[in-house]
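stage 2 :: seqdesign
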């Protein structure tokens, strides 16, 4: 079964849609800190799903390293796809992620993010933060950022110590293994999920 841990992961992803940010945000602390400057009331439960989906699609495309994350989550199977299949996978991965998380974003209106530290980790910069929620325990979120040609991009998000992209890679690998080890089967599953959201994934 495909489990994307939506309830936890959406806490992190929704925060990036909270406040308008400058296209140039060279300071990692500011990049993440700006996320919470206006709260996330704009993505509260009263915002229509279609609008949340459109906002999340825009942020995922602009602020996340979609090609890098996509290649990571399909792992070694990337090289078993031909160039056309690779491009289709990246598109399906983006569409599927947006559709999956957008439905959950409305639950986190009113959360507040506090940046608690910044450190370098090889080629990445890790910004530690904590999300305060009115109806639950604080959530610790570490944002892994890369410099993509002078623009910061999110390469991974650790929520309470759990890597989102590692979790998704394990789930995708399970789908491929359950379908004869054929990576093209994952493309078929993602297509079907986009046509019929909520259908059990095998």
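stage 2 :: out
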């Amino acid at each position: 079964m495909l489990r994307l841990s939506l309830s936890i992961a959406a806490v992190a992803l929704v925060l990036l849609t909270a406040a308008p940010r400058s296209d140039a945000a060279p300071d990692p602390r500011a990049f993440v800190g700006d996320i919470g400057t206006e709260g996330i009331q704009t993505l509260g439960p009263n915002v229509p799903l279609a609008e949340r989906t459109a906002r999340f699609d825009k942020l995922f495309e602009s602020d996340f390293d979609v090609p890098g994350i996509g290649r990571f989550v399909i792992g070694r199977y990337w090289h078993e796809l031909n160039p056309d299949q690779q491009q289709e996978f990246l598109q399906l991965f983006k569409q599927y992620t947006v559709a999956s998380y957008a439905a959950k974003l409305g639950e986190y209106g009113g959360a507040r993010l506090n940046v608690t530290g910044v450190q370098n980790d090889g080629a990445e910069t890790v910004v530690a933060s904590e999300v305060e929620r009115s109806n639950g325990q604080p959530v610790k979120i570490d944002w892994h950022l890369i410099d993509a040609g002078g623009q910061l991009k999110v390469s991974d998000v650790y929520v309470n110590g759990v890597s989102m992209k590692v979790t998704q890679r394990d789930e995708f690998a399970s789908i491929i293994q359950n379908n004869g080890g054929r990576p093209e089967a994952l493309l078929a599953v993602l297509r079907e999920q986009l046509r019929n959201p909520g259908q059990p994934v095998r």
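stage 3 :: structure notes
- The CA atoms of residues 19 and 38 lie 6 Å apart.
- The chain has a mean pLDDT of 81.
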